[in-house]
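thread from #wetlab-drylab

HS: before we spend reagent money on co-crystallization trials with zinc ion, can we at least see a predicted complex? here's what I'd submit
DV: go for it
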Amino acid sequence: MSWSLNIGKIFGIRFRIHVTFLLLVLFIFASVANQHGFQRGLLAALFICAVFACVLIHEIGHSLIARRFGKEAKSITLLPIGGVATIEEMPEKPTQEIAMSLVGPLINLAIAAILYVIVGRWTGISVPTVQPDSSRSFLAGLIGINIVLAIFNLIPAFPMDGGRVLRGLLAMTMDYVTATSIAVAVGQILAMLFIFYGVFYNWWIAIIGLFLYIGAGGEKQQVILKSVLHEVAASEAMTTTFRTLRPDEPISRALEHFYHGCQDDFPVVGEAGIEGILTRDRILAAIHDRGVNVPVSEIMDRDFSSVTPRAPLDEIYRKSLAGGKTAVAVIDDNTVKGMLCLDGISRFLAVRAALSHPGSRV
Ligand SMILES: [Zn+2]
């Protein structure tokens, strides 16, 4: 995410803070200090940092459990609206998804319980406040916020943790796509109730409802796309009319094909089979730096991706195309049978959608 400052690593997970979060802290400090003096301003700024430290621990919880299930936790970013843990992909097993999602809210409840013990022994809890004027109200406020965070995250609507718990529970008795559709429907009904209530009583609740409604729809599309891609084999979506290059040919050869065809990426095939892929970016960079007579073998991508014709598209997408590769070679019996690229996959999906809903526009 741009506008995020790299702070460092926690448990090997990159930790970033969005610039707007720092602005929020500054804004809170300035507005409270302006009304109640420097000390109260400082306490309010510290308080908001403490709240986000709790959010950070919540996200670390998700990330560490994901890692236990073999999913890579890439980064955690703190935004003014909360934390975002970027995890390679959600665990497939329902029990794993439930465990991973529940750990966040449980951590907030645990923090609240620990603080309660500290404050309880002290002088008892007063009404939680977001603008503390003493260390006691500071801790009491943190207890309140952690309870609210736990409850808020357990709302059974995507993208909240509760939405994932509900989907996991449903997926124990039905397929993943149906479970997601039901969980999304429950989430959207709740979101609409939030919006309806919020419009009359509290605009913040309406905004949260809107945020939930949009998040739920996005999750459904992702899951459906993933399940569609999972059903399709590389051989069904690959381009079968393509030109190949020999390693000793100059790139001017590639340029000819480039001008007169729609092909962007060329498999480079030698005596023993495919040796690399020459991508459009590499062709253009080489012409700029070294002219058109450089042999293809010197600029092709030797670290290319290849799959068998039976490989499912979701795996190809996840492992290669999402990671920056522009093309994947489909190889059978040491022969290039076809080429796959993002454009080709989206063309394939568009045609498939048109065929399954005749009459509707793609
Ligand atoms: Zn969470």
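DV: The chain is about 60% helix and 15% strand.
HS: ok that's useful, forwarding to the group
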